[in-house]
Amino acid sequence: MSNVSETIVAVATAPGRGGVGVVRLSGTRAREIALQVVGERTLSPRTVHFARFTDRQGQVIDEGLVVWFPAPHSFTGEEVVELQGHGGPVILDLLVETCVHHGARPAQAGEFSQRAFLNDKMDLTQAEAIADLIDAGTRASARAALHSLQGVFSREVNTLVEQLIALRIYVEAAIDFPEEEIDFLSEGGVADDLQALITQARTVLASAEQGRLVREGLTLVIAGRPNAGKSSLMNALAGYDAAIVTEVAGTTRDVLREAIQLDGMPLNLIDTAGLRDSPDRIEQEGIRRAFAEIRKADRLLVVVDSADFPEDLDNLPALLPQSQQQLDDLDLPITRVLNKADVSGMAAGASPDYRDTFVISAATGAGLPDLRAHLKHAAGYQGAEQGRFSARRRHITALQQALAALDNGRRQLLGHAAGELLAEDLRAAQQALEEITGAFTADDLLGRIFSSFCIGK
Length: 457
Known about the structure:
alpha/beta; Gyrase A, domain 2; Four Helix Bundle (Hemerythrin (Met), subunit A); Rossmann fold; 3 domains; 17% strand; flat
C-alpha cells in the first residue's frame, strides 16, 4: 500500500492527443502545489477559475481552468485540484513534472481510487466498477458497471451481511448464555432464517454470474485439423474477414484473437493453427500455442469437415490429432462443429444424434443461428437485461464460498444441532461476503452484538 500522507499527481485523461487534458492532484498539499503552478490567487471551492500554468522557471506552459475540491468533499476524500488544459502529451507531461518539482509524487496505477476506498468514499466493488466502466466493450457491460459504481451490487451484498449478522447474534446468544434457558437453536425460526439467507445468496450469485458474463464474456477457442474451416467459422461469427482464408493447409500459423458480442454477451474468439503432425518448425510453434490457448479456454469449438465425417465424434484424439498427453489433460466443455454442409449435403442445424454438435456451413451461414443460440445457452447467458451489475471472478468465488459455508452450517444445525459449528460456518460466510466489498473486520460484529444485547449485567 502506498504512503497516503503524500500528495500524488497524474494525468487523468486518456493517453494521446485531445482537445482537453486534465492533471489531477490529491493530498494535503494539493492546493498549495496547484497555487505554485497557477500563481498565488484565491481559489473558491468547486468553482472553475481561468489560470495560466507556469513551469518551475516561471515560464507559461499552457492556460486553462483550475478547480479545487476541499476535503472531504472530493473523489478521494482528500484535497483535490484539477488542472484542465489542452490535451497535448508534451503539455501534460510538463504540468506533471512541475507538480512533482513542487513536492507531489507521481501516482501509482489506481491510486486515486485506492485512496477513495481507504477514505470510505466507496467500497471495493465500486472502486473495481470504475475500471470496469472504463474498459467496457459493450453497452450492456457499461450499463452493468455503472450500476455497480452506483452501489447496486454493494447493497445486495450488504443486505446479506445484515441478515447474516442478525442470525449470528441469535446463535451466539444461544451458545454464550445457556443459563437463560432460551434454546434459540431448537426453534424453527433459526432454520427458516438460515434457509431464507441461503436462497437470497443463491439469487445474488446468479445475478453476479450474469454480471460476470456481461463483463468478461466467454473465451472460445476454435481448434481442428487444417482446412476444416476454422478461420471461415471465425469470420462468420465475427461478421467480417478477421482471419485469412485459403485452400492451403497450414495458412493459420499463429493465434488470432477477435472480440465480438452475441446479443450483448462478449465473445472472445481465438482461432488457432490446424492440429497435425508437421515438420515445419513455425507450424509446430503455432500448434504449441494452440494447445496453450485451449488449456485457458472457457469452451472449445472443435471444427470437423463434414465431408470427412468421423465414425466416433466422442473420440477427441481422432478429432484433434496431436499429442495424446495434451488431450488427456483437457478438462473443459466441448462443442463439435461439422462444417462445409454446403459441400457434404448434410442437413444444417443441431445434430439429432450427438449432444452439443452442430452441422453448419461457414460459407453460406446455414446452421449458424443454432450455434449462436447454443453458445449463449452453454454460457448461461440470459440476456443483457439480466446483468444488473458488473461482477468479477473473485466476487463469484467469494459468493460460492459463503454459500458453501451456509449450506454446511445448515447441515450442522439440522443434523447435529451443533451450535458452535454453525456459528463458525456463519462467521466464515460473513468473512467471505465482506471480502467482496472490502469491509471485513471482526470488530464490526462485536460492536453490533454489544449494541443490540444488554449483556453488561
